[in-house]
Amino acid sequence: MSSLSKGTVRVDVRKDTASNWTSANPTLKSGEFGYETDTGKLKIGDGSTAWTSLSYHGEGGGITTGKSIAMAIVFG
Questions:
Q1: In Å, how far are 55, 66, 72 from 47, measured between CA atoms?
Q2: Which of 64, 54, 8, 59 is nearest to 34 (CA)?
Q3: CA–CA dist 16, 4 (Å, integer)
Q4: How far is the C-alpha of 51 from the C-alpha of 28, rounded, in Å?
Q5: Nearest CA to 42 among 58, 20, 19?
Q6: Is residue 37 classed as helix, strand or coil in its secondary structure?
Q7: Long-range Cβ contacts of 33-36 (<8 Å, 24+ apart)
Q8: Secondary structure element (H or E) that encloses residue 18, with its range
Q9: Going by C-beta distance under 8 Å and a sequence separation of 6 or more, which residues neighbour residue 28?
Q10: Nearest CA among 60, 55, 52, 36 for reference residue 44
């Protein structure tokens, strides 16, 4: 297993209003985050499903934290 030194990781999140997301209906890359700035909701892409067909993160048992997003990134 390789070692990992301390550092900074930047995660970019695409942001727009719910109506703009719906109107554009993009397909997010696998693991890409799309955040609705007016509703505080988040979707995570799978690389093949258009925006309007993705579920919001937290629907079906996930964890949502309102307008903040908490995550752990594990490298291994």
A1: 14, 25, 21
A2: 54
A3: 34
A4: 7
A5: 58
A6: coil
A7: 33/69, 35/69
A8: helix 18-24
A9: 14, 34, 43, 44, 45, 46, 47, 51, 54
A10: 55
Structure-token pair, residue 49: 């499903």
Give tens-digit pLDDT for 23-76: 999 999 998 999 999 999 999 999 999 999 999 987 654 444 444 555 555 554
Amino acid at 32: E
3-state secondary structure of 30: coil
Kind and range of the H or E run holding 15? strand 14-16
Instruction: Write the DSSP assignment of 48-75 as a string of letters.
Output: SSBGGGSPPTTTTS---BTTB-------
